[in-house]
Amino acid sequence: MLEYLIDGNNVIHAHHDWSKMFSDNQENAKNFFIQKVVDHFKDTGNKVTIFFDGFDFVHSFIKVSNNVNVKYAKNKTADETIIITIEKSKNKKRIVVVTNDLQLSNKARLYQCKLVSSNDFIDMINNKNIKTSDKPDQLSKSEIEYWLRMFEKREKGEQ
Questions:
Q1: Which pLDDT does position 150 carry in this prediction?
Q2: Burial 27-41 (b: 16+ CB within 10 A, else e)
Q3: Is 127 helix (H, G, I), strand (E, B) or coil?
Q4: How far is CA 64 from the centre of its chain?
Q5: Domain boundaries, the chain
Q6: Residues 69-85: tens digit of each pLDDT
Q7: Residue 129 has what pLDDT?
Q8: Cβ pair 7, 14 in contact under 8 A
Q9: Distance CA 104, CA 29 (A)
Q10: How many CB atoms lie within 10 A of CB 63?
Q11: In DSSP terms, which residues pair with 6 in a beta bridge?
C-alpha cells in the first residue's frame, strides 16, 4: 500500500482548465478535483490525503471516501503540513508526494519519499497508463504469445 500526499492547489493549477475553474470558483474546482481523485483511487488499496491551504477553514480534516481524505492546513501552508505528515510517518518510503513545488519536492526527497509531478498525476487520474498500484500489470496469454512472435520475427530479421 502506498500513501499519496497531494499538494491540491499545486495540481489544480498545473492543469489549464482546472486552474481556470479555480479562478472562477475555488470550491467547485476543489470538489471537482477531489472527485477525480476519489474515482481514480477507489479500488487501489492506496491511502490518499489531499492538502489545501485553509487558514480560515472550519473543518481541517474531512474523510471523503474509504481511502481519500482532505486536509486543510490550519495556520500553516499545505506544503508545511505535508512535511509534518511525512515527518510523523513511520514508513516514509511508502509515501508518494504529488507536487510541482521544487522546495517541497526537495524536502520529500530527503526523507526518501517517492515523487510524482503534478502533470504526471493529472495524466494518471485521467487514466493515461500510469500505475497507482504495487501490483505488476498482467499480460493475457494471447498478449504473451503475440510478443513472443514479434520478438522471434525480430531475431530472424523479419518485420
A1: 67
A2: eebbebbbebbbebb
A3: coil
A4: 16
A5: 3-156
A6: 999 888 889 999 999 99
A7: 44
A8: no
A9: 23
A10: 9
A11: 50, 98
Compute the distance between CA of residue 18 and CA of residue 95 in angstroms, rounded to an integer: 25
Extract the C-alpha cell encoding 24: 472562477
Determine contact, residues 95/86, Cβ cutoff 8 Å. Answer: yes
Grid cell for residue 60: 481541517
Residues 70 and 85: their CA atoms lie apart, in Å, by 13
Q: From CA 37, how far away is CA 31, in angstroms rounded? A: 10
Which residues face 52 on adjacent strands?
A: 72
In this structure, the strands spanning 61-63 and 68-73 are: antiparallel
pLDDT at 101: 96
Q: Are 71 and 61 in contact (CB under 8 A)?
A: yes
pTM of structure: 0.77
Q: Which cell is 106 given?
A: 526537495
What cell was used for 156?
530472424
Question: Which residues, given as ranges, of the chain have pLDDT below 50?
Answer: 128-132, 136
Nine cell digits for residue 140: 493475457
